Amino acid sequence: MLIYIRHWQEKVKPRPNANLLMVIVSWLLFGLLLLVGLFIGLIVLLFGWILMLPTLWRRRHELKQMWQFTKAARAAQRDAHQYARKQHEYRQNQADDSVIEGEFKVKDRDQ
Predict the structure, then answer these.
(1) Distance (Å, rounded) from C-alpha 2 to C-alpha 52?
(2) 23: CB partners within 8 A, 6+ apart
(3) Fewest CB atoms within 10 Å of the CB: 28, 45, 78, 106?
(4) Residue span of the structural domain in which 71 resides
(5) Is residue 94 part of a domain?
(6) What pTM was computed for the model?
(7) Among the residues of the chain, which ranges form H helices?
(8) Biggest CA pair distance of the chain
(9) Is residue 50 one of the residues assigned to a domain?
(10) 70 in any annotated domain
(11) Keywords assigned by UniProt (predicted)?
């Protein structure tokens, strides 16, 4: 890997007999290309954020609906449990009223 890096350093390093104006222009062009790339990247990032807003709104709306559904389901479950308990108590009370407590004697049928 180190050999590969040194090879590229030698390629990038300006030659001693290179034109100074060409070296400066090439560095300015390289910097300009970096700035253009950065600008395009920022535009793509901003565009992504703008497109993400409706998706986030839709997800928030779905989560809100799920929360409301869960809340309603819990309330319905609680109401059904209370209704079942009341029905059970009512049946127990009714069953207790229909039972006649006391003593009884069995009479012979022959008499």
Answers:
(1) 43
(2) 14
(3) 106
(4) 20-88
(5) no
(6) 0.47
(7) 2-12, 20-98
(8) 145
(9) yes
(10) yes
(11) Membrane, Transmembrane, Transmembrane helix
